[in-house]
Amino acid sequence: MNSLNGKIALVTGGAKGLGRGICLGLAKEGCDIAINYLSSEAAARETRREVERLGRRALAIRADVAKASEAVPMVRTVEQELGPVAILVNNAGMIRPQKLEQIGERDWDEVLDINLKSAFLVTQAVLPGMRQRRWGRIIFISSLAAQRGGLVGPHYSAAKAGMLGLAHCYATLLAGEGISVNSVAPALIETDMVRSNPNAKPDMVPLGRFGEVEEHTEAVVMLAKTGYITGQTINVNGGMYFS
Fold first, then answer.
1. Does the active-site annotation cover 156?
2. Which single residue of 48, 134, 195, 232 has CA 20 to 30 Å from 88?
3. Candidates 37, 156, 170, 228; catalytic one
């Protein structure tokens, strides 16, 4: 397992929930953290303070990562203020539960842009530096919905499944360049989003409980530390889906 001490990690959607957990988990391993957010400025600042209390440098940076005009300058700013991005966690996303007959073209575009297009744009922005240095870790935060469908809608499932396809392709193309690319597919991790969803019940999970944010974070940290796993999906779902 590789030491992450001194590595720069960029976590999109890192202000709260799973993203916050990832930021803190990587900081505990010695990473300096760039916390991307779109609207959760107060939460991003608090996550930055928590990273700094762990003795690591941190930067909270606002950008709509679904737009190249903001994603690319964001990466440049991170590299100027913290250093070259060695670890990218594509965590930014949204859910929009809708009935089939309610989903229109605008819904489809917005969900695909925020969940999938953003991951492509930020990955493309960090790749030149990773390839030049011949070291990198790229991790996509997908979902059980990519594999089982789920209740959110086909737009969300398609976006999360697209992340798995992106990871497989990047892993194949970059395997000989010191860059690993993997996905984590969580389900029913106990965040505010899950706690506020009346349809989410612990008894839906074979293990009989919601997952803890730290359990999800452990999978991400493991993928960041090892260079011999690539092109894989780690399922953190309490037994809801086997692969």
1. yes
2. 195
3. 156
